[in-house]
């Protein structure tokens, strides 16, 4: 196993700054996902780890060695590409044995190792097949076997499941997690798919505009995002803007454009007239018919700043999303949405008057520039 250290690495292509001052530590044996939208610099960062790209500035260390100027073939890494990059004119066995041949292993030895690796990824029996005769999931397993056969300290995976359908992708996510545990290697995995990252990763590094904006365990980055970009990228949420109308030692309130007054946790320097945006995640919100709602908690909140908040509105749409139902609710001209498990559904229909509620501890507060308000 090898740890990876990136020290202030950057990569530019003329006027395009693809990666800008990234510092990152990947621990021995962990599976770290680089997650972000297309064009954010995550694949370029991986290619600098592999040696396929040379940093414009900064240094790359693998296992304590400075490999910044080292060729890709001299690094103890192997890569699985998005399009699998299998040789169509070679058999499955020959594809897996290819790296061993380049390493100088003898014919009998490399064939034996290739067969053993195919068995470990559940592809034994396919040795003489052509890659063109395989399904997408089978090609992915062969590509993994080829990369793992050379026994690298670091395995790099660049969007390896993006060409698979949803069901097969979910199956391969579990396979990859099992393979990581079995082989006990350091994995760096690039993806734009949040579900993949949360399923696979020990830690997630989130990138945007060439910068690494947050690194942490999946639960940490989801519940404690460093800025609005992370909060928005990791899942749907309701962003509500407002201006502080009152502030006390134990609470403050925002007046919103649609007439609601949202209580936010107190924090240093909050004062009337300052603007903020709050995030109300749909899975943390409650929904019930207005005529069934107990308003005593909301009345208490409005009186002294304690308890939870509520707003009333009209259901515009019910959207069934498999195990979840999304309610789109018009609140004073603003659309808010709530998600509820189908097991907990209340049978609320379009056109009904409802009350939405949430706990103050579940909201996040952001400055106008998108940075997170700390202490809130």
Automatic annotation (TrEMBL):
InterPro entries: AAA+_ATPase, ABC_SmlMolc_Importer, ABC_transporter-like_ATP-bd, ABC_transporter-like_CS, ABC_transpr_FbpC, Mo/tungstate-bd_C_term_dom, P-loop_NTPase, Transp-assoc_OB_typ2. It is found in: Cell membrane. Keywords: ATP-binding, Cell membrane, Ion transport, Iron, Iron transport, Membrane, Molybdenum, Nucleotide-binding, Transport. SMART domains: AAA. It is an enzyme of class 7 (translocase). PROSITE patterns: ABC_TRANSPORTER_1, ABC_TRANSPORTER_2. It holds the Pfam family TOBE_2. GO terms for molecular function: ABC-type ferric iron transporter activity; ABC-type tungstate transporter activity; ATP binding; ATP hydrolysis activity. It catalyses: tungstate(in) + ATP + H2O = tungstate(out) + ADP + phosphate + H(+). GO terms for cellular component: ATP-binding cassette (ABC) transporter complex. Residues 4-234 form the ABC transporter domain. Residues 289-310 are annotated as: Disordered. Its EC number is 7.3.2.6. CDD domains: ABC_Carb_Solutes_like (cd03259). Part of the ABC transporter complex WtpABC involved in molybdate/tungstate import. Responsible for energy coupling to the transport system. The complex is composed of two ATP-binding proteins (WtpC), two transmembrane proteins (WtpB) and a solute-binding protein (WtpA). Belongs to the ABC transporter superfamily. Sulfate/tungstate importer (TC 3.A.1.6) family. PANTHER family: SPERMIDINE/PUTRESCINE IMPORT ATP-BINDING PROTEIN POTA (PTHR42781), SPERMIDINE_PUTRESCINE IMPORT ATP-BINDING PROTEIN POTA (PTHR42781:SF4). This is Molybdate/tungstate import ATP-binding protein WtpC. It comes from Halobellus ruber.
